[in-house]
Amino acid sequence: MIGSREESAILLLVGVAGLAAWFAGWRQGWLPIAAGILTGFAAALLAGNLRRGRAWRQQELAIRRLWRTARRMPPGVTFTDPDTGKGITAGRYRGSVVLVVTEAALDERSAREAIQTTYLLGSGAAPDPPPLFRRVGPAGEPVTVRTPFRQMLGMLSFNDLAGGALETSLDEIMAVQAAAGRAATVGRAMPSARD
Protein backbone atom coordinates (compact mmCIF):
# COMPACT_ATOMS: atom_id res chain seq x y z
CA MET A 1 0.00 0.00 0.00
CA ILE A 2 1.24 3.46 -0.85
CA GLY A 3 1.64 5.75 2.13
CA SER A 4 2.76 9.33 2.53
CA ARG A 5 6.44 8.28 2.43
CA GLU A 6 6.02 6.78 -1.01
CA GLU A 7 4.00 9.77 -2.22
CA SER A 8 6.76 12.14 -1.05
CA ALA A 9 9.44 10.03 -2.74
CA ILE A 10 7.48 10.02 -6.01
CA LEU A 11 7.14 13.82 -5.89
CA LEU A 12 10.87 14.11 -5.22
CA LEU A 13 11.66 11.92 -8.23
CA VAL A 14 9.38 13.99 -10.47
CA GLY A 15 11.10 17.19 -9.34
CA VAL A 16 14.57 15.72 -9.93
CA ALA A 17 13.47 14.44 -13.35
CA GLY A 18 12.29 17.96 -14.24
CA LEU A 19 15.65 19.42 -13.26
CA ALA A 20 17.46 16.69 -15.20
CA ALA A 21 15.35 17.43 -18.28
CA TRP A 22 16.26 21.11 -18.08
CA PHE A 23 19.97 20.33 -17.73
CA ALA A 24 19.72 17.81 -20.60
CA GLY A 25 18.63 20.53 -22.99
CA TRP A 26 14.89 21.06 -22.66
CA ARG A 27 15.25 24.80 -22.06
CA GLN A 28 11.84 25.99 -20.89
CA GLY A 29 12.05 29.07 -18.67
CA TRP A 30 9.49 27.84 -16.14
CA LEU A 31 10.90 24.31 -15.79
CA PRO A 32 13.83 24.89 -13.40
CA ILE A 33 11.68 27.09 -11.15
CA ALA A 34 8.78 24.63 -10.95
CA ALA A 35 11.06 21.60 -10.62
CA GLY A 36 13.16 23.31 -7.93
CA ILE A 37 10.09 24.25 -5.90
CA LEU A 38 8.66 20.74 -6.26
CA THR A 39 11.97 19.13 -5.31
CA GLY A 40 12.36 21.30 -2.20
CA PHE A 41 8.75 20.73 -1.13
CA ALA A 42 9.00 16.96 -1.66
CA ALA A 43 12.32 16.75 0.21
CA ALA A 44 10.78 18.54 3.21
CA LEU A 45 7.74 16.22 3.11
CA LEU A 46 9.93 13.13 2.90
CA ALA A 47 12.10 14.29 5.79
CA GLY A 48 9.01 14.91 7.90
CA ASN A 49 7.54 11.52 7.03
CA LEU A 50 10.78 9.70 7.83
CA ARG A 51 11.07 11.51 11.17
CA ARG A 52 7.62 10.42 12.41
CA GLY A 53 8.56 6.83 13.11
CA ARG A 54 7.22 3.34 12.60
CA ALA A 55 4.14 3.55 14.86
CA TRP A 56 2.84 6.62 13.01
CA ARG A 57 3.36 4.87 9.66
CA GLN A 58 1.50 1.74 10.79
CA GLN A 59 -1.40 3.87 11.97
CA GLU A 60 -1.41 5.83 8.72
CA LEU A 61 -1.58 2.66 6.63
CA ALA A 62 -4.36 1.26 8.86
CA ILE A 63 -6.38 4.47 8.44
CA ARG A 64 -5.89 4.28 4.66
CA ARG A 65 -7.17 0.66 4.63
CA LEU A 66 -10.19 1.61 6.76
CA TRP A 67 -10.88 4.63 4.53
CA ARG A 68 -10.70 2.43 1.42
CA THR A 69 -13.10 -0.10 2.98
CA ALA A 70 -15.55 2.66 3.95
CA ARG A 71 -15.42 4.13 0.43
CA ARG A 72 -16.39 0.75 -1.05
CA MET A 73 -19.44 0.38 1.18
CA PRO A 74 -22.70 1.85 -0.16
CA PRO A 75 -23.49 5.08 1.71
CA GLY A 76 -26.32 5.10 4.21
CA VAL A 77 -26.78 1.32 4.35
CA THR A 78 -26.24 -0.30 7.76
CA PHE A 79 -24.54 -3.68 7.64
CA THR A 80 -24.32 -6.13 10.52
CA ASP A 81 -20.98 -7.59 11.54
CA PRO A 82 -21.64 -11.34 11.81
CA ASP A 83 -19.13 -11.81 14.66
CA THR A 84 -19.99 -8.93 16.99
CA GLY A 85 -23.51 -7.99 15.88
CA LYS A 86 -22.58 -4.31 15.60
CA GLY A 87 -24.16 -2.15 12.93
CA ILE A 88 -21.66 -0.51 10.57
CA THR A 89 -22.65 2.37 8.32
CA ALA A 90 -20.44 4.25 5.90
CA GLY A 91 -21.53 7.71 4.92
CA ARG A 92 -20.44 10.64 2.88
CA TYR A 93 -21.35 13.91 4.53
CA ARG A 94 -20.32 17.24 3.02
CA GLY A 95 -17.46 15.68 1.09
CA SER A 96 -16.12 13.65 4.03
CA VAL A 97 -16.04 9.89 4.52
CA VAL A 98 -17.50 8.84 7.87
CA LEU A 99 -17.81 5.39 9.42
CA VAL A 100 -20.42 4.89 12.17
CA VAL A 101 -20.32 1.78 14.38
CA THR A 102 -23.48 1.19 16.46
CA GLU A 103 -23.74 -1.31 19.31
CA ALA A 104 -26.25 -4.11 18.79
CA ALA A 105 -29.61 -3.58 20.52
CA LEU A 106 -30.89 -6.70 22.28
CA ASP A 107 -34.17 -5.24 23.56
CA GLU A 108 -36.02 -1.92 23.76
CA ARG A 109 -34.11 -0.70 26.82
CA SER A 110 -30.71 -1.44 25.30
CA ALA A 111 -31.87 0.25 22.10
CA ARG A 112 -32.41 3.50 24.08
CA GLU A 113 -29.03 3.13 25.78
CA ALA A 114 -27.10 2.03 22.69
CA ILE A 115 -24.05 4.04 21.74
CA GLN A 116 -22.50 4.82 18.42
CA THR A 117 -18.89 5.55 17.65
CA THR A 118 -18.20 7.89 14.74
CA TYR A 119 -14.87 7.91 12.90
CA LEU A 120 -14.19 10.84 10.55
CA LEU A 121 -11.80 9.21 8.08
CA GLY A 122 -11.07 12.11 5.75
CA SER A 123 -12.30 13.74 2.61
CA GLY A 124 -13.60 11.93 -0.42
CA ALA A 125 -10.24 12.34 -2.13
CA ALA A 126 -7.81 11.22 0.59
CA PRO A 127 -7.79 10.02 4.20
CA ASP A 128 -6.75 12.25 7.06
CA PRO A 129 -3.30 11.68 8.61
CA PRO A 130 -3.02 10.19 12.11
CA PRO A 131 -4.21 10.46 14.80
CA LEU A 132 -7.74 9.28 14.04
CA PHE A 133 -10.22 10.76 16.51
CA ARG A 134 -13.41 9.00 17.52
CA ARG A 135 -16.62 10.50 18.80
CA VAL A 136 -18.84 8.45 21.08
CA GLY A 137 -22.48 9.40 21.55
CA PRO A 138 -25.98 8.00 21.78
CA ALA A 139 -27.24 5.91 18.87
CA GLY A 140 -29.14 7.96 16.33
CA GLU A 141 -27.19 11.13 17.05
CA PRO A 142 -26.63 13.24 13.92
CA VAL A 143 -23.15 12.98 12.46
CA THR A 144 -21.07 16.16 12.77
CA VAL A 145 -18.40 16.42 10.13
CA ARG A 146 -17.07 19.95 10.26
CA THR A 147 -15.86 21.19 13.61
CA PRO A 148 -15.36 24.93 14.17
CA PHE A 149 -11.73 25.95 14.66
CA ARG A 150 -12.11 26.97 18.33
CA GLN A 151 -13.93 23.75 19.14
CA MET A 152 -11.20 21.75 17.38
CA LEU A 153 -8.54 23.53 19.45
CA GLY A 154 -10.48 22.70 22.62
CA MET A 155 -10.77 19.08 21.55
CA LEU A 156 -7.03 18.85 20.84
CA SER A 157 -6.26 20.48 24.20
CA PHE A 158 -8.57 18.03 26.00
CA ASN A 159 -6.97 15.13 24.14
CA ASP A 160 -3.51 16.25 25.30
CA LEU A 161 -4.64 16.68 28.91
CA ALA A 162 -6.44 13.33 28.92
CA GLY A 163 -3.45 11.46 27.51
CA GLY A 164 -4.92 10.72 24.09
CA ALA A 165 -8.44 9.75 25.23
CA LEU A 166 -10.01 10.73 21.90
CA GLU A 167 -7.39 9.05 19.74
CA THR A 168 -8.03 5.67 18.21
CA SER A 169 -5.36 3.05 18.84
CA LEU A 170 -3.89 0.92 16.09
CA ASP A 171 -5.60 -2.18 17.51
CA GLU A 172 -8.99 -0.44 17.48
CA ILE A 173 -8.49 0.74 13.90
CA MET A 174 -7.60 -2.79 12.84
CA ALA A 175 -10.64 -4.24 14.69
CA VAL A 176 -13.01 -1.72 13.08
CA GLN A 177 -11.48 -2.36 9.66
CA ALA A 178 -11.90 -6.13 10.09
CA ALA A 179 -15.52 -5.69 11.26
CA ALA A 180 -16.32 -3.36 8.35
CA GLY A 181 -14.71 -5.79 5.92
CA ARG A 182 -16.70 -8.73 7.32
CA ALA A 183 -19.94 -6.77 7.28
CA ALA A 184 -19.42 -5.56 3.71
CA THR A 185 -18.39 -9.03 2.53
CA VAL A 186 -21.34 -10.82 4.06
CA GLY A 187 -23.54 -7.98 2.88
CA ARG A 188 -26.42 -8.45 5.31
CA ALA A 189 -28.17 -5.15 5.67
CA MET A 190 -29.96 -4.45 8.94
CA PRO A 191 -33.68 -3.75 8.65
CA SER A 192 -34.36 -0.04 8.75
CA ALA A 193 -37.11 1.74 10.67
CA ARG A 194 -39.07 2.23 7.42
CA ASP A 195 -39.52 -1.52 6.85
Order of helices and strands: HHHEEEHEEHH
Strand content: 15-25%
Lateral strand order in the biggest sheet: 1-2-3-4-5
N- and C-termini, Cα separation: 40 Å
Q: Return residue spans where pLDDT drops below 50 for at least 5 consecutive residues.
A: none
- Extended strand count: 5
Helix content: 40-55%
What is the CA-atom radius of gyration, in angstroms? 21 Å
Q: Can you count the helices? A: 6
Nearest-integer average pLDDT: 82
Determine the structural class based on helices, strands and strand pairing.
alpha+beta
For the biggest sheet, the summary is:
5 strands, antiparallel
Q: If you had to describe this structure to a student in words, what would you say it looks like?
A:
The protein is an alpha+beta fold. It folds into two domains: 4-51; 61-186, no CATH class. The chain is 50% helix and 16% strand. The chain has six helices and five strands. A five-stranded antiparallel sheet has the order 1-2-3-4-5. Strand 1 and strand 2 form a beta hairpin. Helix 1 (4-24) runs antiparallel to helix 2 and helix 3 runs parallel beside helix 6. The longest helix has 21 residues, at 4-24. The radius of gyration is 21 Å and the shape is elongated. The mean pLDDT is 82.
